[in-house]
Amino acid sequence: MSKPVSQENFEPSEVAFGAGVLSGAYDQFSASDPAEACQEAFESGINCFDTSPYYGNSEYTLGNVLYEFRDKYPRNNYYLATKIGRYGYTIKDFDYSAKRVYESVTESMRRLHTDYLDIVYCHDVEFVKLDEVVGPGQALEALFDLKSQGKIKYVGCSGYPLEALLKIAEYQYAKGQPLDIILSYCHYTLQNTLLADYTPKFRAAGVRYIMNASPLCMTLLREGKTTDWHPAHGGIRKAADRAAALAAENRLSLADLALRFSFQGKERFQLTSTVIGLAKKVEVQDAIRSWKDVKERKNSEKEDKVYEQIDQIFAPYKNFSWKSPTDKELCKEEEH
Fold first, then answer.
1. Which of 108, 123, 189, 325 could cross-link with 83 by S-S, CB 3.0 to 4.6 Å?
2. How far apart are CA 271 and CA 53, in angstroms?
3. d(CA 58, CA 22)
4. Are 273 and 212 within 8 A, CB to CB?
5. CA proximity to 214, closest of 262, 164, 156, 157
6. Whole-model pTM?
7. At 114, is the secondary structure helix, strand, or coil?
């Protein structure tokens, strides 16, 4: 199913391949899993891959797989997105200077075996001051310069607090140089739907493409154990456990329900694509199955009833956004 993508506009598949999980910070996978997952993605029609230097070996792993597949799935058959600015866990590991941006993009292109990148985001913009993103000699200035050179096609920002993303988008719009794209994560899920409120605001600020990432809320909305590093507080974690148990009692999967919910939101609010963390062939198959299912049928009565019950479970924490950066990421815990 793989075919050349549009070079004039960004026309990604509705499911995008989130390669952050290739860092190994989520679940373990075998040496052969990334290649099998990417091949399944291509054959299923997925044409957009998202990574970052911050995601451990993700750029290396993804780049090597794509290079191995270069004859069967050439570079013009997919979009590649990566990020700049964040290179470690704490604020000490951020560098938004233009000099570092140029170096970072060159490094990413080398790891990904490509001479151009479709999208480059400023990574986790809430960790730095606004001027470090939009000021002279800083990140966006360098990225737009690289865009003028043809090394980047679309310039964007990613982050968790939607207000931080909107502030930058509106600043750039007023400047006459609007962002092309934003990447929001964990803000259109069963627990938090704030992205729906912000989408028209981003559109008004000239943002053409809006990517919704992590519909499973970084392992929270699934049957398995939530990762230890997840920033959600105990109340949300317990609510997620209750929601998973409720789904199981009704012979449903919380992960399937969460994916279905996010895919339906894409239609409602005209989100560009949903980025899902994928490292194994079966995960790609599950995501595509869920996406196709949304296209083919409406919710069953049982699903609607379970959705209502899940909404009640999450009601005390509806649209609650955790702190980002956390004290640990701000290095405040070291001060005590």
1. 123
2. 25
3. 5
4. yes
5. 262
6. 0.95
7. coil
Quote the CA–CA distance of 328 and 315 in Å, as a whole number. Answer: 28
Q: DSSP assignment of 229-261, as one string?
A: T--S-HHHHHHHHHHHHHHHHTT--HHHHHHHH
Structure tokens at 88: 């470690």
Give the integer Cα–Cα distance in Å for 313 and 178. 39
Dist CA 16 CA 81 (whole Å):
10
User: Would you say how long the chain is, in residues?
Assistant: 336
- Closest by CA position to 125, among listed 100, 159, 101: 159
Q: How far apart are CA 43 and CA 280, in angstroms?
A: 14
Q: What are the start-end ranges of the E strands in the chain?
A: 15-18, 48-50, 79-84, 117-122, 152-159, 181-185, 209-213, 273-277
User: What tokens were used for 23?
Assistant: 């860092």
d(CA 169, CA 183): 12
- 33, 100 contact by CB (below 8 A): no
> Which residues have C-beta within 8 Å of that of residue 311, sequence separation ≥ 6?
190, 318
**At 140, which helix (H) or strand (E)?**
helix 139-148
Spatial distance between the Cα atoms of 324 and 187, rounded to a whole number of angstroms? 13
Phi/psi of residue 122, nearest 5 degrees: -75, 125
Each residue's pLDDT, cut to its tens digit, for the chain (336 residues) gives 789 999 999 999 999 999 999 987 666 788 899 999 999 999 999 999 999 999 999 999 999 999 999 999 999 999 999 999 999 999 999 999 999 999 999 999 999 999 999 999 999 999 999 999 999 999 999 999 999 999 999 999 999 999 999 999 999 999 999 999 999 999 999 999 999 999 999 999 999 999 999 999 988 998 876 777 788 888 999 999 999 999 999 999 999 999 999 999 887 888 999 999 999 999 999 999 999 999 999 999 999 999 999 999 999 999 999 999 999 999 985 444
